[in-house]
Amino acid sequence: MTRRLVTAVLLIAGARSALADGGTIIARDKIGGLVITTFASALRTGVVDLSVMVQNPEGLDPVLDAAVELTLTAPDGREITTVATQAQAQNKLLYAVPVTLDQPGRWTLSMVVSRTGMSVSIGARFEVAASSAVKYWKYLAIPPAFLLLFTLHQWLWRRQGRQ
User: Fold this and answer.
1) Cα 106 to Cα 8, 72, 75, 110, distances in angstroms
2) Which residue has the higher pLDDT, 162 or 48?
3) Domain count along the chain
């Protein structure tokens, strides 16, 4: 009985941290005969995988012959323009591109999706948080500090033993 209870508690606790594909929807819009959904792997500073799914509105079949251009505007006004492709995506139903978001704050995304003589634009705003590693640097520094102290202790102990 207790073994089942412990297993159930562990499964429930583990399910909370399971983030499926880890993607956050930044924008979703039906425009110009297309349904466009944009995902981000994690909205933190550093390299972020931006993925775009383009679908037909009837039946939501994926569109695999589009060109997707992204323009990101940083909080300080600097722009990053890039092209998302299926070659860069793990899931070949998506168009993806890795982008380095180097500043926390509110970013703006402008996207142009082109397909056989038709072009549509969509925009979104999203918040980027500071990287977790920067936030917890003191805690991450503790193991190397203890390792350094242990090494120093051992070196001094052996040196004292020789004399």
Assistant:
1) 40, 11, 6, 13
2) 48
3) 1
